[in-house]
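Let us begin with a simple case.
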Amino acid sequence: MRIAVIDDERPARGELIWQLRELLGDVDFAEGDSGAAALGLAGEGKYDLFFLDINLGDISGTDLVHAIRAMQPEAGIIFVTAYSEYAVTAYELGVDDYVLKPYEKERIRKVLSRCMPSGAAGRGEDRGEKSHPKKIAINSDGKTVFENIEDLVFIETCRRGCLIHTREHEYYDGKGIGDFEKRLPDMPFFRCHKSYLINLEKVREVFPWGNNSFGLKMEGYEKTVIPVGREKTKTLKSLLGW
């Protein structure tokens, strides 16, 4: 397996490669410190994954995507950035995923589980197909229920666990909201508040609410107001095109 890590900051490259080695073991890494270097690597041999910093000195990572795709159509491309608002850019460009700086091992593990080639981790032949399951297990009332992920509307913290709201049912699960955030795909799920995880495809309304903040309502739960954290507003606006 070959992985290219492109970042104009050497310490950042080294940290990411170290964490990838911890998770993957013996892997062949190539490093590049510029957009030109990325194009050179893409043209010299086959790679399975490109970890591509967005803010390079010469060519933006967003401008490199199509060129790398043309030269390496089977390779996965993962944006590396310090800014969460680039999540929507990654989604629009069809990039496989993104990793935020500073790096978190669990986040990298999650990205790898989705984006590894099929021969290594069951990645589908269709580039749009992600490796996350279509159902999620919910432990409620002494039994395990399997709900379609697309039917989840929102999840909120409740006591020491969570209330999971679906199109037709509500469940209490003793696991924390962070656990569900890790198990669900970043798109279309978004942590709009420390206590709420929402399905962006189920948002019905967004409106001013409270002191210089916003609230939203979800399909089927129009009587419930979900707060939006102030630090989440900009990203939510980008993701919803609002």
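The second case is a distinct protein. As before, the sequence precedes its structure tokens.
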Amino acid sequence: MNKLLTTVFAFAVASLATIASSQDIVGDAKAGHAKVDMCLGCHSIVGYQASFPEVYKVPKISGQGAKYIISALGAYKKGERKHPTMRGIADSLSDQDMADVAAYYSANGVVAGAALPPKPTVEPSPQVAALLTKGACVSCHGDNFSKPIDPSYPKIAGQHADYLYVALKSYKTDNNALVGRSNAVMGGVAKQFSNAELKALAGYVHSLDSELKVVPQSRFR
């Protein structure tokens, strides 16, 4: 097992231990629906773009795994992901709030019985295939990049390419008070690549069939 895969395995074990320690907190999608007003202005507008640290479409979160949403919100709250707006939102949420919001978004827009094919229907170019192998991407994000091996890892197939690119670059940023993400696995992966290579990876992953979507919400609920 190479060094990167060893790190991935160790991180997965640690993530599972964290999940197990908080398994008594059960999310309620109905309760979450009443707690997402602060999310709607960005994540429920098709094509909505953020402008920090650069312009990019905010991520699709409807259909995302609940444990990943909880993990991401927790990382913003602890400062492991640096983003002033998301830090402020995460700071306002209790653990129960996070679980409820995650339960809501994981079910939002999901069509019963719909399933992705087991393998991507779009073949990567030889260049991108080599990058995917080098980064061992499927070892964490799973079949079709939508079956993560750990529930605290994200589904990434079909995610906005510009968001993926900005997110990947952020793992390469160190010692910046406002920008960057602290994650040993993703830091090790992203730092292997040039920004041009990260953009190529993001573009390919975006092209894949996806369970992720933006579900528009009425202003008046």
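Strands lie at 49-50, 56-57, 81-82, 180-181. The mean pLDDT is 91.
Keep these points in mind for the review questions at the end of the chapter.
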